[in-house]
Structure formats: structure tokens, C-alpha cells
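Title: Comparing notes on inverse folding

I've been comparing how different people in this forum approach sequence design from structure. To keep things fair, I'm posting one structure and asking everyone to reply with a full sequence. Here's the target:
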């Protein structure tokens, strides 16, 4: 196990890189799908609270629920395919960057939205980083 794997092992509560990867994917799936369902089911009240158009929030919610289900499917696989994991990592990275860009140039959120949007971007970026490191650890082990 490499030196960079040790911190991951503590977070994932395992030293097996494939299990780490699956756990980080599963956490991402639960958080993403949960956010998606909340955004879709309560797009009106959440839109007003965050200062984001409810139609936009509904669309984002449906997308996130479907994306979360796809990430959950990868997490449920005994050995998630590298291509799929890379696609999730890249999508998470793009989401995090676009969230910050949208906040800076497009959205005019409430104070709650101004706090929530970067926090969500950091969370999604964190998932991407954890998944990337676990994928690297898995590949370096030859799993």
C-alpha cells in the first residue's frame, strides 16, 4: 500500500483499493441522489430559499437523481469499470467548476444559496478527488 493510500484507508475503513473506490462511489451516489430527490420534490420552496429558479432546480434535481442512480450502479459492481469511474470523476469535476462559475457570472442567489452552492461544489470536488485517489491506488496495486 502506498503512502497516499493510508489516509484513504482511514476514511474508507479498509486497505483494499477496490473496496475504497466502491465506498466512495456509494457515498457519492447516496448524497447525489438524495440531493436530486430533494431538489425535484421541493423545487419551489428550495428555489425560493436558495434564490434559484424552481424550474432550473427541478431539472437539476431530476438529473442528479438519475446520475446518482448511475453512480450507485457502479458502486454496486464487484469491480467498477475504469471508464465508468473516470466518467464520474470528470463529471464531478465539471460540476464543481461550473457551480462556482454559475455563482460568479449567472446566478443571483440568496445568502443561503451563496453559502450552499460553493459548499456543494466543494463536496462534489471532494468526491472526485477521493475517487481519483482510490482509482490510482487500485491501478497501482494491479487490482
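Reply #1:
Here's my take.
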Amino acid at each position: 500500500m502506498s503512502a497516499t493510500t493510508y489516509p484513504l484507508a482511514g476514511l474508507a475503513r479498509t486497505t483494499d483499493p477496490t473496496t475504497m473506490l466502491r465506498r466512495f462511489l456509494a457515498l457519492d451516489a447516496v448524497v447525489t441522489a438524495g440531493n436530486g430527490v430533494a431538489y425535484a420534490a421541493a423545487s419551489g420552496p428550495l428555489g425560493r430559499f436558495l434564490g434559484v429558479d424552481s424550474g432550473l432546480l427541478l431539472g437539476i434535481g431530476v438529473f442528479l437523481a438519475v446520475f446518482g442512480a448511475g453512480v450507485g450502479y457502479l458502486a454496486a459492481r464487484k469491480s467498477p469499470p475504469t471508464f465508468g469511474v473516470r466518467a464520474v470523476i470528470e463529471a464531478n469535476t465539471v460540476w464543481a467548476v461550473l457551480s462556482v462559475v454559475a455563482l460568479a457570472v449567472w446566478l443571483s442567489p440568496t445568502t443561503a444559496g451563496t453559502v450552499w452552492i460553493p459548499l456543494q461544489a466543494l463536496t462534489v470536488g471532494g468526491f472526485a478527488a477521493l475517487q481519483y485517489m482510490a482509482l490510482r491506488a487500485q491501478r497501482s496495486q494491479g487490482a
